[in-house]
Design a protein that fits this description.
The complex is a heterotrimer of chains A (219), B (718) and C (152). Chain A is mainly α. Chain A has 10 helices and 4 strands; from the N terminus they run H-H-H-H-H-E-E-E-E-H-H-H-H-H. Chain A is globular. The chains are: A mainly alpha (219), B alpha+beta (718), C alpha+beta (152).
Chain lengths: 219, 718, 152
């Protein structure tokens, strides 16, 4: 999307990608994200005059639409269902064990998420995937994806009551960048379809959406 | 079979202490592991017959030849004996009998638990066993007191004398030695039953709530290794070659040996064996490659052609003047028994004998099969029947392959071994309830009554080619394959039941309620279709056609009445009804059903009426009805074993689903008081459930569910 | 060697850290009350308590179980356990019995966290445990009975 490849921002982003790809997520991503700030300014400087705002808005929407394919993929959406039961599998069926969210999102009684989901994915098809802190969003901020149009989802993301974020921009990017559960979605599972893009690409799309104004898609 | 029964009846009274306690004590070796009930050394034991051991501490051990797989037979059989011997129930302990002809099922001529037959086949024999022991106790007391036996009575584990003297059975153990069992015993008048017909507490609850119960899976004997077997991925397949190098490199793997049914990876424990198997390289020669889509097409074509006639009354092809006609098809899939305990067997083959520890329904077969493999005499093969973690027919197999595998591995490695099946092995292991296709053609007269009924069944036979073929096959029809269809209780002047033998692509087997599990679905849905075609109430319509079946009609009436048939229901709910006779019992069920916003069936309640003749334990009967309904709903909603390129598509409980507690309905059971002939209770609760639910769904959606499993969204059915 | 604390006793188990806890319990420690049903956390027959949670031991690697406080059916002996066993007996719950260790382990956590569960709570707590014999109706009754038997 960016034509000028000599932008320092691009270089920084590449470093971020490399850092993410090599796994130095929490340690490295935070400081780099702050360093990225100048990129916005740089972008503005090179942008075309009067159509700039409209173009930026369109690009923001496009970026969201791209990221939306990840949000709505079963690997992500299954823990962001419209009801209180998590979903399973590529067909997003209701979790077989009648698991429910509970107030903290960690399941209830003998059916807490971590009773079956370990700290890492288990080898073999249809084995419980795992990650530290396996859980759904808490009852207070259910973060529902299922059934949401791009317009609805983008609108909701910007609503801190919905997400539980304090600072939408910062927390949203942080969540998609470093949250282990988000990262887990990008690890291939035997017998399951893969997300439509890499984690790096996804993070870039979310950032682009936000940095270009977090525009709400039309539909 | 009758001859066998007579011989056995006579035999039990003669054998006395033949199958003595020593046999059983060796079974409960401490080496077996923790949790086994250790029997303290008995100071003295009286063995009035093969089934009873009276100990000096007043405990009475009952040796049960029937396998306990959840159906409550240990308790029910003990009730028969304890009642007639006037024993104190709190002193009864029950143990699995060894494999021995004394314990042959009177109905089968071998030791086999199945066909819902234990209760009615033992009703007389085990009561006589108990009465005989009681007579011995009375005679022993009379001898001890030097009084005439006529002045003695027995009650609650004591012999009483008119003089007021009283002695416990345990104190009579010595005096009872050498007393000849009476040749003729008088049985109680049913009004005097103390335990029979009462909701006596099960004898196996404690060990099933504290972890102490020992199932086949839990057996451990000294020096035992654990094996898993890589079986062909396609039924009928064979090992072409295998390379065990990588498997043997897995820590814990000790040996890799080929047996008849595959390649066994033997290790120090299950996890190592399983890892070893994953590393094993086997090249297979495949059998025929079954495809479910193709099979469906084939069966459908077969169903359009006349089959072998199982039953013919009148002439279905000569019906004239029919006001209405229906021509529809029903289908049910292959099903896996999916008992909770995956299959397993421990075998210890030695030069001088063989011990087999197994949760089996068929001790005699396992014993013969092991004798055949080892070259030992059958009596050198000891079968230790463990608790069965469910069975539903899967552990009653003509070829004894579960035991055979373990015996072959133990023989090959010259060590005791436990062969364990993973859940995947079990789901993909074959011996399924058959896939079936049903062509139903019916016509109605102007009065709405049926004029003709043709039921053509297409399915495999698991009887043909076995020793039971002769018993099952009549005029080229496997009568077990069409059971339930051939006993149509409805008056239809022109009736024909036909059968086509499906291609033998997959090993099939009886599963809880056997042929009835699919014939009742087709039959009870089709009569419902005819009722609606006639514009009649489906309960009243059935009822009007059942004059010659009063017991069946009675349970239909009771179920309808108790379910409030015809009364208003909350909006969105409907009732469906079905009635069926199987295993000599008569059962009607009314299902109360709704359909959720996403099209999922919700069964709220099933009201069940059963007439099984005299009852041994009403609470067990209720438990069996409750369990049968859930079992049937699992089949109706989820059960489906299907094939692609010869391979079974399903693997484990995630894709071979079992009903869970949040989906289970309330089951309300009404037992008819009856002195009529006795029937079974383990299976007959299953057949009516799926049709009752399908018939209720029709009321709600106007869609007929003619194929099991039912679709996840019933609104989409046409 | 992996250190396990099971039913209050300490054990050293010579096994691979990725081996599921179930096999250490059943084969190494000979605590066979915990059952194998599926090996993929579908059926709940292998349920044990690990630091108070009803974990599925068939998918719990020894590396996670090491050092945790593990209770199996053989070691479940508190007041809740007694009430559950009494209720299971009174309602005649078990048929084949194979799943019942897991059912009781699950029910014990349910009652500890929700002493007077509703039917809905029971559905949320117990649907991870399959009973092929279909004893669900009695399990439900028994849990209610055990709850009522608690001393306030």
């Amino acid at each position: 999307m960016e034509k000028n490849t000599n932008q320092p921002g691009k270089l920084v982003r590449r470093i971020v990608y490399v850092a993410l790809a090599t796994g130095f997520l929490t340690a490295v991503a935070q400081p780099l994200r702050i360093k990225e700030e100048p990129e916005k300014e740089t972008y503005e400087k090179v942008a075309d005059g009067k159509d700039d705002a409209a173009r930026r808005e369109q690009e923001s929407k496009d970026a969201f639409l791209a990221a939306y394919t990840v949000f709505m993929h079963p690997r992500c959406m299954n823990c962001h269902p419209s009801g209180d039961a998590p979903l399973q599998g590529d067909d997003s069926h209701i979790h077989a064990q009648n698991v429910t969210r509970g107030t903290d999102g960690k399941g209830l009684y003998a059916l807490k998420c971590k009773n079956c989901h370990q700290d890492a994915n288990l080898p073999g098809a249809d084995m419980p995937p795992g990650s530290p802190g396996w859980a759904m969003p808490p009852a207070k901020h259910k973060m529902i994806f299922q059934g949401m149009s791009p317009k609805e989802l983008a609108t909701h993301f910007k609503d801190n009551h919905y997400t539980g974020f304090k600072d939408f921009e910062k927390d949203m990017i942080h969540h998609v960048e470093v949250e282990p559960l988000v990262l887990n979605s990008f690890i291939p599972l035997e017998g399951r379809s893969r997300l439509p893009m890499t984690h790096e690409e996804f993070v870039a799309k979310v950032k682009e959406w936000i940095e270009k104004g977090a525009a709400i898609p039309d539909k | 079979m009758n001859d066998n029964t007579t011989v056995n009846r006579r035999k039990f009274l003669q054998t006395g202490a033949l199958a003595g306690g020593g046999l059983l004590l060796s079974f409960y070796m401490p080496a077996l592991g923790k949790g086994l009930k250790r029997v303290p050394p008995a100071p003295a034991t009286c063995a009035p017959n093969a089934f009873i051991r009276i100990n000096a501490d007043n405990s009475i051990k009952i040796l049960c030849g029937h396998s306990e797989m959840g159906q409550g037979t240990y308790t029910a059989m003990s009730q028969l004996i304890a009642d007639e011997m006037d024993a104190d129930w709190s002193k009864i302990v029950v143990e699995a009998a060894p494999a021995h002809q004394d314990y042959f099922n009177p109905g089968f001529g071998m030791q086999l638990t199945g066909g819902s037959a234990s209760a009615y086949s033992e009703w007389e024999r085990l009561r006589k066993v108990g009465a005989s022991a009681r007579a011995i106790m009375i005679e022993a007391a009379a001898k001890k007191w030097n009084v005439p036996a006529a002045g003695c009575t027995a009650k609650d584990g004591f012999v009483l004398h008119s003089s007021g003297k009283k002695i416990s059975y345990g104190d009579l153990v010595e005096a009872a030695q050498g007393i000849t069992p009476p040749t003729d015993v008088k049985l109680k008048d049913p009004k005097d039953f103390k335990y029979i017909g009462k909701p006596v507490k099960r004898l196996d609850t404690k060990e099933k709530t504290n972890g102490e119960g020992i199932f086949g899976m839990d057996v451990k004997i000294p020096g035992m290794l654990v094996a898993v077997i890589q079986r062909p991925p396609v039924f009928g397949g064979k090992v072409k070659s295998f390379n065990a190098d990588k498997a043997k490199a897995v820590p814990g793997v000790q040996q890799v040996v080929q047996i008849d049914r595959g390649v066994a990876v033997v290790a120090t424990g299950y996890w190592a064996a399983k890892q070893g198997r994953e590393a094993l390289e086997v090249e297979w020669e495949d059998g025929p490659l079954l495809d479910s889509v193709e099979q469906r097409k084939l069966y459908k074509e077969m169903a359009n052609k006349p089959g072998s006639v199982a039953l013919k009354e009148g002439d279905v092809s000569a019906v004239t003047g029919a006001a209405k006609a229906l021509d529809v098809e029903y289908e049910t899939p292959y099903l896996n028994h999916a008992q909770m305990e995956p299959l397993n067997c421990v075998a210890d083959v030695r030069a001088d004998g063989c011990d087999i520890y197994i949760g089996t329904q068929a001790q005699t077969i396992d014993q013969m099969v092991a004798a055949g493999i080892t070259g030992l005499k059958p009596e050198q093969v000891k079968i230790h029947t463990m608790l069965l973690g469910g069975a539903f027919g899967r552990r009653a197999i003509m070829d004894g392959h579960i035991a055979a595998e373990a015996v072959q591995v133990s023989k090959a490695i010259a060590k005791p071994v436990k062969v364990m099946w993973s859940r995947e092995d079990d789901v993909r292991g074959g011996y399924y309830r058959q896939f079936s296709h049903h062509k139903m053609i019916g016509s109605l007269g102007a009065d709405g009554k049926p004029l003709s009924w043709l039921h053509r069944v297409v399915c495999q036979s698991f009887m043909i080619g076995t020793p039971m073929e002769q018993m099952a096959v009549k005029n080229g029809v496997d009568m077990i394959a069409v059971e339930g269809a051939t006993e149509l209780p409805y008056e239809v002047p022109n009736l024909q039941i036909e059968w086509h033998r499906g291609t033998e692509a997959v090993p099939t087997l009886w599963m809880r309620s056997v042929g009835h599990s699919y014939t009742a679905f087709a039959k009870e849905c089709f009569i419902d279709e005819l009722a609606f075609a006639a514009g009649k109430d489906p309960y009243q319509y059935r009822r009007s056609l059942m004059d010659k079946h009063p017991r069946l009609r009675n349970v239909l009436d009771v179920a309808a009445k108790k379910a409030g048939w015809g009364t208003a229901l909350p909006a969105g709910r409907a009732r469906g009804i079905a009635v069926h006779e199987s295993f000599k019992s008569f059962i009607a069920q009314v299902a109360e059903v709704s359909v959720t916003a996403t099209g999922k069936i919700k069964v709220h309640k099933v009201v069940c009426a059963i007439d099984c003749g005299p009852t041994i334990n009403p609470d067990t009967i209720k438990a069996q009805m409750e369990g049968s309904v859930v079992f049937a709903l699992t089949s109706a909603f989820y059960g489906d074993i299907s094939f692609e390129n010869g391979r079974v598509k399903q693997r484990n409980f995630h894709d071979y689903k079992i009903m869970r507690i949040n989906e289970a309905p309330v089951v309300e059971t009404h037992i008819i008081e009856s002195t009529d002939t006795m029937g079974g209770v383990g299976e007959p609760g299953v057949p009516p459930t799926a049709p009752a639910v399908a018939n209720a769904v029709f009321v709600l959606t106007k869609n007929r569910l003619r194929k099991m499993p039912f679709p996840a969204d019933v609104r989409k059915t046409t | 060697m992996i250190s396990l604390k099971v039913n209050g006793k300490n054990y050293e188990v010579d096994a691979s850290p990725d081996m599921p806890l179930l096999w250490a319990l059943r084969e190494n420690l000979e605590l066979t009350g915990t059952k194998f049903g599926c090996g993929m956390a579908q059926c709940g027959a292998c349920t044990v308590h690990m630091d108070g949670n009803a974990v599925r031991s068939c998918v719990t690697p020894l590396s996670r179980a090491a050092g945790k406080n593990i209770i199996t059916i053989e070691g479940l002996n508190d007041d809740i356990a007694q009430r559950l066993r009494d209720a299971w007996t009174a309602e005649e719950v078990p048929q084949c019995g194979y799943c019942q260790s897991g059912q009781i382990m699950a029910a014990a956590v349910l009652l500890r966290e929700k002493p007077h569960p509703t039917d809905e709570d029971i559905d949320y707590g117990m649907a991870g445990n399959i009973c092929r014999c279909g004893t669900y109706q009695r399990i439900r009754k028994a849990i209610h009975r055990a709850a009522k038997a608690s001393t306030p």
